[in-house]
From TrEMBL:
Belongs to the class-II aminoacyl-tRNA synthetase family. It comes from Candidatus Uhrbacteria bacterium RIFOXYC2_FULL_47_19. It holds the Pfam family tRNA-synt_2b. The lineage of its organism: Bacteria, Candidatus Uhriibacteriota. InterPro entries: aa-tRNA-synt_IIb, aa-tRNA-synth_II, aa-tRNA-synth_II/BPL/LPL, Anticodon-bd, Anticodon-bd_dom_sf, Thr-tRNA-ligase_IIa, Thr/Ala-tRNA-synth_IIc_edit, ThrRS_anticodon. This is Threonine--tRNA ligase. Zn(2+) binds at C298, H349, H478.
Length: 606
């Protein structure tokens, strides 16, 4: 088993990047006044930021796609040309492409650190020479490539949508139109992806979350700040308890920290310089101290470690916490539970000796594996390492990074897992193992992570007394299983299409009376079920049985108990299972055993 190191561009990514240029060429032919931003590869396709006098609507996408197919049929060649940066500036000035000039001037004046990863894809790594690509003899774009040879090589494509995006992500800049497209090697793959998207739309957690009454948003509270109802809170608490059931037996203990901290904490940790623009700032009127709402928990946890003298006998110390952090996301990037400003993390940090790292990482790996097995989500691993060509983006020296990365790689290999290498995907303080989970309709999500950190213990001067009587630095391991509870809950809603397994269902049993004459029996049954630890709902409403069943099905309740004259003794029950029309007869004891078995095993079976 070993690492799969992806090249900077895979063949399908070359197709996707080339398709972005074909789309831009089509737009240039249809809208000659168009100005072009950047057009990087993303996920399963690409996007391109465009500035046109007449806004492009969803109805225009078919017209653009038709012109793209004409360019494909022409079989235009992709041709690379290199030029000094000053020549490139004049080249694009003559073509009245102001956004390209903005990128080139940033590159010339400030170097590659002044551009984002997507922008770097568009302009390359060099500050003296840049490259352009021609699509046939008409369209030319600032781009580092690579591309396919000719336009017929780009595979199957489909334009997806159009949205707004500020130039370079700055709301003070012009709003451009971002056109998205999908590209796959074959039409069959594209069709399968489009079918998956249709299914994903049906499962949209924003729609289902509202229908099931799990969470809400309020303009008075603020964008990106979800409010969880009683039912949504039940799911959150069940998830927390599941993680706790896996980590408490291996020595994790809960701690609690405040939601704010002085800015000095994050200046010491290094987060201030990296994330200052993402922080919510708070100033005390009484002391004039500068505080921030905490964007992460690890600096607080270092101070718990530092609060007492530590010996090697105390290690490892495994701190865990479920708590919210806050990040000032752009309003346009907020999306349901997927991107929020209040992020609840199932966070944990291990402080250990160098000799304990391997065992502690293995414990983390076991927790993560067991957790995702419970949801039927297969995992793949990525070893995320630093980019040696961008050293200024990371804390610590090369030796620290070499050592940390080799330790994580050894841990993965010892477990016998395949993994891919994610160059440049490390956290700024250390390398990590990222776990990518696949949901029920084939989408992949980066969720769990295990991060190795030699830098924060150094920056905070953490120490313990070793067996030799000398002072030593502990190693710090950052670990998350769900990642963001909000995001994970959104993924779960879509994974199960709202039909949660019994243990997660906010209402596990719906008691349905045949008539008002059976209300007393239903109350008695509901009380008995609650005493058994089962979540039950019963409404004293004069509604038909059929209506109550349809309402329970819409609410995706796992079990429905229809109570009429036959069931008055409660010795035998008429049970209807979610998604099934046929009713079954079970004794009370059989039904209780069935439900409890599903709860204990966290089964997906009813």
């Amino acid at each position: 088993m070993g690492a799969v190191k992806p090249s900077d561009f895979k063949w399908v990514d070359e197709m996707r990047h080339s398709a972005a240029h074909v789309m831009a060429a089509a737009i240039q032919e249809l809208y000659p006044e168009a100005k072009f931003g950047i057009g990087p590869v993303i996920g399963n396709g690409f996007y391109y930021d465009i500035d046109v006098a007449t806004p492009i609507t969803a109805l225009d996408l078919a017209k653009i796609e038709k012109r793209m197919r004409r360019i494909v049929e022409r079989n235009d060649e992709f041709r690379r040309e290199e030029m000094p940066i000053d020549q490139a500036i004049e080249f694009f000035r003559a073509r009245d492409q102001g956004y390209k000039l903005d990128l080139l001037k940033s590159l010339k004046e400030k170097g590659t650190t002044s551009v984002s990863a997507d922008e770097k894809e568009a302009i390359g790594d060099g500050a003296e020479m840049v490259s352009v690509y021609w699509t046939g003899d008409g369209f030319v774009d600032l781009c580092r490539g690579p591309h396919v040879k000719r336009s017929r090589d780009i595979g199957a494509f489909k334009l997806k949508s159009v949205a707004g995006a500020y130039w370079r992500g700055d709301q003070d800049n012009p709003m451009l139109q971002r056109v998205y497209g999908y590209v796959f090697e074959t039409q069959e793959e594209l069709d399968a992806h489009l079918k998956m998207l249709e299914e994903a739309e049906k499962r949209d957690h924003r729609k289902l979350g509202a229908e099931l009454g799990l969470f809400a948003f309020s303009p008075l509270v603020g964008a990106g700040l979800p409010l969880f109802t009683e039912r949504g809170t039940i799911i959150r608490e069940e998830l927390e308890q599941y993680v706790s059931s896996l980590q408490v037996p291996v020595g994790y203990r809960r701690v609690r920290i405040p939601h704010i901290a002085k800015s000095d904490l994050y200046k010491t940790s290094g987060h201030w310089d990296k994330f200052e623009d993402d922080l919510f700032h708070v100033r005390s009127k009484k002391t004039d101290d500068e505080f921030v709402l905490k964007p992460m928990n690890c600096p607080h946890h270092t101070q718990i470690f530092a609060s007492s003298p530590r010996s090697y006998r105390d290690l490892p110390i495994r701190m865990s916490e479920v708590t919210a952090v806050y990040r000032d996301e752009n309003t346009g990037q907020l999306q349901g539970l997927s991107r929020v400003r209040s992020i609840t993390q199932d966070d944990a940090h291990v402080f250990c000796t160098m000799d304990q790292v391997e065992q502690e990482v293995k414990i983390v790996q076991d927790i993560i594996r067991k957790f995702y097995e419970g949801f039927g989500m297969p995992l793949r691993l990525r070893l995320s390492v630093h980019d040696p060509n961008n050293r200024q983006a990371y804390l610590g020296d090369d030796e620290v990074w070499r050592r940390a990365e080799s330790m994580l790689e050894k841990s993965i290999r010892d477990q016998g897992h395949d993994f891919e290498l994610g160059v440049g995907e490390a956290a700024f303080y250390g390398p990590k193992i990222d776990y990518i989970a696949k949901d029920a309709i084939g989408r992949e999500w980066q969720l769990a992570t295990c991060q190795l950190d030699f830098n924060l213990p150094e920056r905070f001067q953490l120490e313990y007394t070793g067996e030799d009587g000398a002072k030593h630095r502990p190693v710090m391991i950052h670990r998350a299983v769900l990642g963001s509870i909000e995001r994970f809950m959104g993924i779960l809603i879509e994974h199960y299409a709202g039909a949660f397994p019994v243990w997660l269902s906010p209402v596990q049993v719906q008691v349905i009376p045949v008539s008002q004459d059976h209300w007393d029996t239903c109350r008695r049954l509901a009380g008995q079920l609650e005493a058994e630890g089962i979540r039950v709902d019963f409404n004293e409403l004069q509604e038909t049985v059929g209506y109550q069943i349809r309402k329970s099905e819409k609410a995706k309740v796992p079990y429905m108990l229809v109570i009429g004259d036959r069931e008055k003794s409660l010795e035998n029950l008429t049970v209807r299972l979610r998604g099934q029309k046929e009713e079954i007869q079970l004794s009370y004891a059989e039904f209780i055993d069935r439900v409890k078995k599903a709860l204990v095993e966290r089964s997906t079976e009813l």
